[in-house]
Amino acid sequence: MRYAVLVTGPAGAGKSTFSNALITHLHTAKRSAHLVNLDPAAEADSFEYEPAIDIKDLISLEDVMSELGYGPNGGLVYCFEYLLQNMDWLEEELGGYDDDYLIIDCPGQIELYTHHPFLPSLVRQLNRLGLRTCAAYLIESQFMEDKYKFFSGVLSAMSAMVNLEIPWINVMSKMDLVTASDNDAASGRNGIRARKDIARFLDPDPLLLVSAPGSREERTERNSRFHALNQAIVQLIDDHPLVSFLPLDLTNPDSIETVVSHIDYTMQYGEDEEPKEPHDLDEGDFADME
């Protein structure tokens, strides 16, 4: 059985960094993992590991923009349309991998996950080829600085989950940048905040994040006239509690292992595998056991 993890999320969420860290962690655990680059705009120096499969070998955003005169977003859409028209190329590239963990680094254009049909079509093709797939959706902790950005992040995650319809986990990345010390060189760009300030967004009660009607906060809010709309959005999130976030600190191996364990669980990693005989049973101290 082959496994594929789609690493998704908005630009700047840390997808490539997470992909590299995930491969390093899997290699440390003696597991076979390979990087697949699906971002036609990715720079070669952004990868710690050379991609085993690279969409830029088929088509690149730079070529599309220069030859067809498209802008970045239109060019990216064209690249994915071209990929779907040439799935035989991807099928041939995937043919050499068996019982492997494929980490698929996806682009950062959020519309690809929320309403375009490209990634759902790609997932169906991967399933047809016998790959068990799931997605990890990353949102950076520095983004979750207030309840309005929280609403935005949760709704984008919900939209992507509904669009792709595959096993899914949500990850709050860059938790190592969350600090309460103003002397820390890694202090967040949005101000000093402790982990307890971010923790309320990991698995929160959405109704607690809306100003109570008639409260001082509601009266002083700059856009308090949108309170009814905020209440409706929060009620939607509360009625469909699909989203919670796993904190990811890449400086902490236990944090990475927790995320890997959740990914394994969502894909039922190893459920269909037969036990493998150790290589040294036929030699050394075990030779006399035959």
From TrEMBL:
Matching InterPro entries: Gpn (IPR004130), Gpn3 (IPR030228), P-loop_NTPase (IPR027417)
Region (Disordered): 269-290
Keywords of the record: GTP-binding, Hydrolase, Nucleotide-binding
Signal peptide segment: none
One Gene Ontology MF term: GTP binding
Domain of life: Eukaryota
Pfam families reported in the protein's UniProt record: ATP_bind_1
Similarity comment: family membership: Belongs to the GPN-loop GTPase family.
Record's function text: Small GTPase required for proper nuclear import of RNA polymerase II and III (RNAPII and RNAPIII). May act at an RNAP assembly step prior to nuclear import.
Binding partners and assembly: Heterodimers with GPN1 or GPN2. Binds to RNA polymerase II (RNAPII).
Entry protein name: GPN-loop GTPase 3
Species whose genome carries this gene: Wolfiporia cocos (strain MD-104) (Brown rot fungus)
Highest classification ranks of the organism: Eukaryota, Fungi, Dikarya, Basidiomycota, Agaricomycotina
